[in-house]
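Lab manual, section 2.4: Encoding a predicted structure.

Procedure: take the sequence of the chain (419 residues), apply the prediction step described in section 2.3, and record the output as structure tokens. A sample record is shown.
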Amino acid sequence: MNSELIILLLVIVTALAFDFTNGFHDTGNAMATSIATGALKPKTAVSLSAILNLVGAFLSVEVALTVTNAVIKIQNKDGSPKAEFTANHGRALLIIVLAGLIGGIVWNLLTWLLGLPSSSSHALFGGMIGATIAALGLSGVVWIGHGKLDGVIGKVVLPALFAPVVAGLVAAAGTYLIFKIVAGVAERFTEEGFRWGQIGTASLVSLAHGTNDAQKTMGVITLALIGYSAGSPESSGGFLFWNDTHGVPLWVKFSAAAAIALGTFLGGWRIIRTLGKGLIEISSPQGMAAEASSATIILTSSHLGFALSTTHVATGSILGSGVGKPGAKVRWNVAVRMVAAWLITLPAAAIVGAIMWFVAAKIPGLAGPIVAFAILCALSGYMYWRAQQQKVDSNNVNAEWDDETNAVAPTADEKIAKV
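Recorded output:
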């Protein structure tokens, strides 16, 4: 077994780990409001979301291999790795991908620990950009696309600026109209009816999330397989051999779909709590308006070929539903913390990705990638341990929000809201 094969296996495991964090990190985008209003019980909500993410992951793989192509220069137009990265079984490519994935995972876990919804896509882009800059310099990054919405500006910056604003405006208008239409109708009737509507709209968001986000992991693993296989065509009998730039191996589809579904099922309760309880005290009509806005914008943007962050869209929609309801209370200090996290997502993940590239590339032989992977395991274990000290789960996710501390984890004496 050569060292590059071991690095390839590390890349596959790390990519699936990223997919797993993507699942539980983004569960709240679809289900936070349904859980907060009682439309769905917490465990029922994450189970439904997991199933729909699993189904969504199989609906489309058309752009899987070109996901990273828009921001870094390690691939040809057809998605295949450039020739200079395929020497030694694609070692240079594998190390860049490994380091970038670690950058994305570390940022996902840190923001999960803090209960801050942030974009997993932007974390992955940031990690890859940092690793590429460390390996190739600034010229290795596509900063501005050529006549289309590619590059860091088109894929990351502009969507981050416009997605939450557009989603917020749509949700605010929808919420305002809903409350005007149902004015005078008994609250118990509106709450019950809109809770059923929430289930449908939340399901659409989950399905769209699975379709969009699972492709990233499929593409990264397939790129690594092609890079490794380019130097060893004689190994065509092995399941790790792949040279088709127009398809994704079946086992990659299943493993990526299962990873994102499992992550979704376990539920990112800390982020669900922030979105469902921390931004606004949400009612069923607001929840349906927010989810309908998110689903409409995500599906429309996907059809038009725009890459929007589901996190930015969902958060903007929830804020908009608070603005659109007369007299509703919006916790702007919590919103400001979220926006701050969005602003530093790409550079923070890039810094981690760059550091991990130096560790993996500069420590001789196989030791470098193994040390980088060990650092990831250590950081992940530490953040999980910290989260257990102030645990948030399905039992206390709907506890009353403390306006004084704005802490994600509720204190022991806080009353749990009945839903």
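Check your result against the sample. Residues 3-163+186-275+337-394 form one domain.
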